[in-house]
Amino acid sequence: MSNMIIDKDGVRRYVVSITVNGDEYTKMVKSNTLLVNFLRDALDLTGTKKGCELGDCGSCTVLLDGKTPINSCLMLAVEADGREFITVEGVASHEKLDHIQEKFIEHGALQCGYCTPGMILSAKALLTRNPKPTEHEVREAIAGNLCRCTGYINIIKAIMDASGQEIPM
Amino acid sequence: MSEKNFNVIGKGKPRYDGRVKVTGAAKYCGDLKFPNMLYGKMLGSPYAHAKILSIDTSEAMKIPGVKAVITAKDVPSLKYGISPARWDENCLCIEKALFVGDKVAAVACVDEETCYKALKAIKVEYEVLKPVLDYMHADEDDMPQIHEKYAKNINTEIHQEFGDIKKAFAEAHYVRTDTFVGQRCYQCPIEPHSAVCIWQDNKLTVYSSTQSVHYFQHYIAREFELPMGDVRVIAPFVGGGFGGKLEPTGLEFNGAALSRITGRPVKMFYDRQEMFQHNRGRHQGTYKITSGVDKDGKILGCHVDFQTDGGAYTSLGIATAYYAGALLPLTYEIPVYKFDNRRMYTNLPACGAHRGHGAPQPKYAFESHMDNIAKAMGIDPLDIRLRNARRPNTETVNNFKVNSCGMKECLERAGELSDWRKKKKEGLPKGRGIGISTGSFVTGAGYPIYRTDLPHASCMIRVHEDGTSATLYSGTVDIGQGSHTILCQMAAEAMGYRYENMKMVASDTETCPLDFGAYASRQTLMSGSAVKQAGEEIYRQIIDMASTMLNLPPEDLKCELGVISSISRPKVAPITFEEVARRFFVLRGPLIAKGVYTPPRLGGTFKGAPVGTSPAYSFCVQAAEVQIDEETGKIDVERVWDVHDVGQVINPVNLHGQVHGALYMGLGETIWEQVHFDSNGKIVNGNLGGYMIMTALDMPPITSEVLEDSYEIAGPWGAKEVGEGATNPTIGAFRNAIFDAMGVSVNSVPLTYEKVWRALKEKRESENK
Amino acid sequence: MYLPDFEYYAPDSIAEACKLLSQFGPRAKVLAGGTDLIAKMKNEVLKPEILISIKKLDQMKKIEYVPGKGVVIGARSTHNDLVNSKVLNEKYLSISEAAHQMAANQVRNAGTVGGNISNAVPSADLPPIFIALNAAVKVTGVKGERSLALEDVFAGPGKTNLTQDEIITEVIIPDQKMTGSNYIKFGLRGAGALAVVGVAVAVQVENNVIKDARVALGAVAATPVRAKKTEEFLKGKKVSDEVLAEAGVIASGECKPISDVRASAEYRTDMVRVFTKRALRAAIDKGHV
């Protein structure tokens, strides 16, 4: 492989170019470098959280190709080579919060905040794909994002409100 | 009744930390980096009970990037624990490992990956001992003794009797005994624990995902024999605690030792499985309850007899053991009460303070027992509760003074909201049932965790030189419950200022005055009382200054939302807080104030009397309606109603969020959550796929209401707790709803689909006989 | 957590991938979505020394109808590709529905069809519905291609009958006479839970008579299994609640579940009875395959 070097200890290191929030980063990674660690350690984008590291909690959710939520704890950085991602740091633009972020604050849809980045990205992906989701579709879209504080109620309200629909419950 | 013309409190102000949390800018402990920082991890025992014969660290030390490997000989041997009555835990195990995951060695390396390689290279020779895994048999003769000092593996034994229980039963119209069994649950905050320790120039700084910077400072200083002033503990953003982050862990102690040895900052962290092993979650127990009632179902006496599984160490378990029985006489007036409890040591992860500390499982047993009595006597479950409901301004049999108490009103309102009477009269469709249950919780513990005469809460407020902002300095910790928000609201209300201009410096032992932190639902009342005092001091100073500026008497001035005006002369042009504050600074120097709070002396004099004392108690009722799938036992939750007496509400958005969250955790424990072990004491579901906390698809609709006119004399502006009380009634409400729907009692939690299925199957089989 | 070291290859062709797999033998594993493999490597359940990524093999991502062959699902299709596929929504909605039940959104966006089959997890959600619809898989190895019935892929938990060099490239759903199909996953929470029992059925019903039936059970044996006695029983029967109930009873006798922390064998056995009955009813009433 052309984009690989073997260092003096015999460890293979790969050059990857990964676009995050519109900026392309070219870095060396090992085969076992996970995307979540690439984001947090190499780019210091610590809004992407580690909660379970096994794809169960969704704290590390990022948007692949700007629209598809995936768990970055299960993706290798080498697999992400050449791809584009949006992390929570890329949701607000120019100091202006995204509508979803505003609604999260308004409805008290966050408490400890640890699941919030992943939750917001899942919500963002949902409303991009389906601007008027039903309450069940909202629940379904965030079912891979575990929250231990809110009981989800205010999160569901915030997302429904962000979609301009009646607030359930 | 209180004057309700508030400007800042009682309003759903947006969270203080909302913006940084929705943008991902908030830094949690695991997000921190320092120059030259190392990464550290601990090696856990693979055995539940084992003698450590030898540890060979030489291979690990040879790995490039490994900077230090430590074992028990490299760390203080002073035993620690959060509860001073039983210090029984070491930084690293000295002779024996007492549960799977117990701390055996620790490493510090240049990166995370190297830590895992180093751990694998440490060779430990164990002599595997028979483990004690069943708390109900832990005291038997053939069981090994886990701790030298504690015979028969009894960690705590409680025997309290208030009144003559034999006489009460003898005089009762009906006496009944029921036994219920609880399970092990884990708090499971989404943020894993981590700690960054920096030992430099004989001073130790610890960043930690903690609920209490003060207790961490106290115990870390004690362990390393440092003056408190040389230990600085800072809690950055904390990703949930629920009790599990109240006590220091091996991360802080071993991280500090590793930092001292390497001279570099060390970041220690648990992964999810290690969090489950560290645990400090809900105790499981077996709860036997006997009550005698008169012919109307009025309780004459209760005897509760519990045995609980404490795991390998004490943690906060002594308090848990007392709480288990102490809080039961709160919601109902129990005139005669006997409480026995034994907390057992086992070779399983240590249990501690889990939201609702000690109360939810005994409450499940008690509320189920109440419904059994009601059913046997033909009394409506709501009525038996109304007949026994606690009244305000009373004292419990175990000497807890209750001021405000809307127990009866909560019951009535929950009955109305859930349409209880109509449903009971007309009946529900097949498979449908409704249950009701009560709860209550302390608003802050009456006594500190370790014995001290320090005040429980204190704070300072400093108004900026030009008056355009004010900073609240407080040792409180916002673990997600929103305390920063409501404390800033309280400060602004007391100061006559605006919430939006408040800033907060918190959770840092060096820059903030002491506060015991986030546990026992204490910060609203206790920290809030200190904040109110400080805010009122600022108010007085502002009014005093304005009085000289306007040449009006201070009693004629008022300050609201940063505007100072004359009460009697509406035509006098108002002046702003900013103008006055600036003038104050020019003439008198910094505009500062302090507040301090110590609870009054509370409780009785008997052994264990302090546990459960509190300046105030919340009360709540939950009703739950379920639909049971008769063939599968699946429980579909139609709706839950929660009615709360929380005193004056400070922030309704936060408040209902707390109810939702507590109910969510309670419901998780009710149906889904249980930590499972294999026959060797190893956790088999220590991950978020196997340990099933509810997803958004599982959360039922909730109606959350508060009693509007409740006022608590002991609380700031009449406020009391909400965050933990709502976990209290949940399990009982669901057990009772299933009981109502299907006529079967599931006598152990979680109330899994399979257990409901089995109960129904057994019922059918017995009916067919 | 820590992902142990491994060598990584991302070949440009299936042939090259097979060659690498052949060359490295059991030390190598195919990496597709990673949702199962990476998690198992972190837990050290699997310890491959070499990962062969198939990310460049875009020809394995198609879902299309090929006349004379059937619906061809590329093995690299993700579960959400199945959920959103127009072809499947029109022809085999039950497959889209089963894919939707597999896991939460993030996992469905990464986990692939080939992975869900070749991991050979007994509780996997796609194999039962594929088996019920008589699906075959195309596998490619160094010696070329072959196809085998999906139910013949599995050898035991985590074990398949594929050789080390073989990769599943396609799942083929043949044209069929079945008039209805359905998959019910019974898990213990709304998302992110493995099936305690999974039941898939396909039926051909004409004039209220069951002409043909296939029943496949997941999570109740070492591999997904056909309930062949149940199928035989159903053939030629007039649809009635009694017949479907009886079918459930027969099916519950055809599974060999284990007890674990999620459910006892006894409960699983009875749930096979309940959900076979319910899946049959739904397949008959819903009127789509």
- Can you list the strand order of the major beta sheet of chain B? 3-5-1-12-9-10-11
| Total of helices of chain C | 11
Percentage beta strand of chain C? 25-35%
* CATH class categorisation of the largest domain in chain C: Alpha Beta
- The span between the termini of chain B is 61 Å
* Unreliable stretches of chain B: none
Approximately what portion of the residues of chain B adopt beta-strand conformation? Answer: 15-25%
**What are the segments of chain C in which pLDDT stays under 50 over at least 5 consecutive residues?**
none
First and last CA, distance of chain C: 42 Å
Sequence of strands across the biggest β-sheet of chain C:
4-5-10-6-7
The greatest inter-chain interface is formed by: A-B, 59 and 57 residues
Shape of chain C: globular
Number of helices of chain B: 18
CATH homology superfamily name of the largest domain in chain B: Aldehyde oxidase/xanthine dehydrogenase, molybdopterin binding domain
Helix % of chain B is 25-40%
* Mean model confidence by pLDDT of chain B: 97
Rounded to the nearest angstrom, the radius of gyration of chain C is 19 Å
Radius of gyration of chain B: 27 Å
Number of strands of chain C: 14
Quaternary organisation: heterotrimer
Please, could you describe this protein's structure?
The complex is a heterotrimer of chains A (169), B (769) and C (289). The termini of chain A are far apart. In chain A, strands 1, 2, 3, 4, 5 and 6 form a six-stranded mixed β-sheet that branches. In chain A, helix 2 (99-106) crosses helix 5 (153-162). Chain A is 28% helix and 18% strand. Chain A contains five helices and six strands; from the N terminus they run E-E-E-H-E-E-E-H-H-H-H. Chain A folds into two domains: 4-90, Beta-grasp domain (Ubiquitin-like (UB roll), Roll); 99-162, Orthogonal Bundle (DNA polymerase, domain 1), CATH 1.10.150.120. Chain A has helices at residues 35-42, 99-106, 116-129, 135-141, 153-162, and strands spanning 4-6, 12-20, 23-30, 61-64, 68-71, 84-86. Chain B is α+β, with helices and mostly antiparallel strands. Chain B has three domains: 18-25 and 456-597, Aldehyde oxidase/xanthine dehydrogenase, molybdopterin binding domain (Aldehyde Oxidoreductase, domain 4, 2-Layer Sandwich); 32-129 and 190-240 and 245-278, Alpha-Beta Complex (Aldehyde Oxidoreductase, domain 3); 284-446 and 604-768, Aldehyde oxidase/xanthine dehydrogenase, molybdopterin binding domain (Aldehyde Oxidoreductase, domain 4, 2-Layer Sandwich). In chain B, strands 3-5-1-12-9-10-11 form a seven-stranded mixed β-sheet, with helices on both faces. In chain B, strands 7-15-14-13-8 form a five-stranded mixed β-sheet. Chain B has a four-stranded mixed β-sheet with strand order 18-26-27-28, sandwiched between helices. In chain B, a hairpin with a 2-residue loop joins strand 22 (557-560) and strand 23 (563-566). The model of chain B has no long low-confidence stretch (mean pLDDT 97). Chain C is α+β, with helices and mostly antiparallel strands. Chain C has eleven helices and 14 strands. A five-stranded antiparallel β-sheet of chain C has the order 4-5-10-6-7. In chain C, helix 9 runs antiparallel to helix 10 (241-252) and helix 10 runs antiparallel to helix 11. The longest helix of chain C is centred in the last third of the chain and has 22 residues, at 265-286. Chain C is globular. The mean pLDDT of chain C is 97. The chains are: A alpha+beta (169), B alpha+beta (769), C alpha+beta (289). Chains in contact: A-B, A-C, B-C. Chains A and B meet through helix 2, helix 3, helix 4 and helix 5 of A and helix 1 and helix 16 of B.
